[in-house]
Amino acid sequence: ALAAVRPRDLEGLRVTVTAGGTREPIDPVRFIGNRSSGKQGVAVALAAAARGAQVDLILAHVDEGVGAAASVPGIAVSHAGTAAELLTATTDAAATADVVVMAAAVADYRVPQIADGKVTKEAAGETLTLELVQNPDILAGLARDRRAGQTVVGFAAETATGDALVERARRKRERKGVDLLAVNEVGWEAGLEASENSLFFVDAAGDIVGRTSGSKRETADALWDAIVAVRAAH
Ligand code: CTP
Ligand code: CA
């Protein structure tokens, strides 16, 4: 099917998009990661560039080939491996951004003491306990520090369904303080690695201001429609 023709309604806007999953090192050869492919975030960046925005795309770990798809005019790609690196890169980029979209799957916890050498069975024995500490919430920080006129958007991947999903989404929108939260229902099959997606959007009043399903590019365009509407209402 032909993609709907979208207006160049993001012309003149500078946007920051994060994509992929962070990897938190345990030792020189191991990490804690997640199943984010980066496809949705890259689709959000591509949709923005196609609509005229100047895009800073910050990639954490993405699946093979996903990053290459983003090398198009209008998108400047940079890389951040860990949550700490992503915090620095995103804070820098956000300083000049009109819109920030955090589509990256940020590890909630990291290993506070990364081992200098490989953790061995000989040293660890029958069981191994890893201590984890919480990472800073990048999105909540961006929302708290945002300038007048800047729009901060989060993503939430949830395994809840029905009313519980909507309630959780409202609470998360509130806790993060974002202008818009894009909510993605995920399970073992749906969402993270799939190329089709369904999203709904919760605004600052807690209202659901859009629902979309389709390819990650189609849902990305629907997200930008919702962002444009939220900015117009400010
Ligand atoms: N996020 C972030 N920094 C973190 C964790 C999450 O910026 N340390 C961002 C994600 O990029 C996403 C949003 O917050 O845009 C929601 O992430 P999610 O994992 O759904 O929320 P959490 O607050 O981590 O809550 P939980 O995982 O416990 O549901
Ligand atoms: Ca999380």
From TrEMBL:
Q: Which UniProt keywords apply?
A: Decarboxylase, Flavoprotein, FMN, Ligase, Lyase, Magnesium, Metal-binding, Multifunctional enzyme
Q: Which positions fall inside the DNA/pantothenate metabolism flavoprotein C-terminal domain? A: 10-229
Instruction: Give the co-factor note.
Output: Binds 1 FMN per subunit.
Assigned EC number:
4.1.1.36, 6.3.2.5
Q: Where is this region: Phosphopantothenate--cysteine ligase?
A: 15-234
Cofactor(s) the protein needs: Mg(2+); FMN
- Reaction(s) catalysed by this chain's protein: N-[(R)-4-phosphopantothenoyl]-L-cysteine + H(+) = (R)-4'-phosphopantetheine + CO2; (R)-4'-phosphopantothenate + L-cysteine + CTP = N-[(R)-4-phosphopantothenoyl]-L-cysteine + CMP + diphosphate + H(+)
Cite a GO CC annotation. phosphopantothenoylcysteine decarboxylase complex
Question: What are the recorded GO MF terms, alphabetically?
Answer: FMN binding; metal ion binding; phosphopantothenate--cysteine ligase activity; phosphopantothenoylcysteine decarboxylase activity
Q: Name one GO biological process term.
A: pantothenate catabolic process
Binding positions for CTP per the UniProt entry: 108, 118, 136-139, 155, 172, 176
Q: Signal peptide span per the entry?
A: none
> Which pathway features in its UniProt record?
Cofactor biosynthesis; coenzyme A biosynthesis; CoA from (R)-pantothenate: step 2/5; Cofactor biosynthesis; coenzyme A biosynthesis; CoA from (R)-pantothenate: step 3/5
Q: What does the sequence similarity comment in the record state about its family?
A: In the C-terminal section; belongs to the PPC synthetase family. In the N-terminal section; belongs to the HFCD (homo-oligomeric flavin containing Cys decarboxylase) superfamily.
Purpose of the protein:
Catalyzes two steps in the biosynthesis of coenzyme A. In the first step cysteine is conjugated to 4'-phosphopantothenate to form 4-phosphopantothenoylcysteine, in the latter compound is decarboxylated to form 4'-phosphopantotheine. Catalyzes two sequential steps in the biosynthesis of coenzyme A. In the first step cysteine is conjugated to 4'-phosphopantothenate to form 4-phosphopantothenoylcysteine. In the second step the latter compound is decarboxylated to form 4'-phosphopantotheine.
Q: What name has this protein been given in UniProt?
A: Coenzyme A biosynthesis bifunctional protein CoaBC
Task: Say which species the protein is native to.
Answer: Microbacterium ginsengisoli
Organism lineage string: Bacteria, Bacillati, Actinomycetota, Actinomycetes, Micrococcales
User: Which gene is annotated as encoding this protein in its UniProt record?
Assistant: coaBC
**From-to range in the entire protein, with total length:** 169 to 402 of 402
